[in-house]
Amino acid sequence: MLKIHFGTDGWRGKIAEDYTFDNVRRCAQGFANYLKEHYAPEEVQRGVVVGGDRRFASEDFTAAVAEVLAANHIPVHFTGASTPTPVISYSVVARHAIGAVNITASHNPPSDNGFKVRDPQGGAIAPAGLKAIEARIPEDMTGVQRMKFDDGVDAGLIMPFDPKPAYVAQIQRLVDLQPLRDAGLVVAVEPMWGNGAGWLTELLAGGSTQVYETHSDRNPIFPEMKRPEPIPPNVDAGLAFARAHHADVVCIMDGDADRCGLGDEHGQFVDQLRVFGLLAMYFLDIRGERGPIVKSLNTTVMLNKLAEKFQVPIYETGVGFKYIAPKMEEVHALIGGEESGGYAFGAHIPERDGILANLFLLDLMVKTGLKPTQLLDRLFAMVGGPHYYHRIDTPLESNAFKAQAKARLDAAMPERIAGLKVLEKVTIDGYKFIMEDGGWLTIRFSGTEPLIRVYAETTHEDKLDAILEAGLTMAGIHSE
Question: Which secondary structure element, helix H or strand E, spans residue 44, and what is its range?
Answer without folding.
Answer: helix 41-44
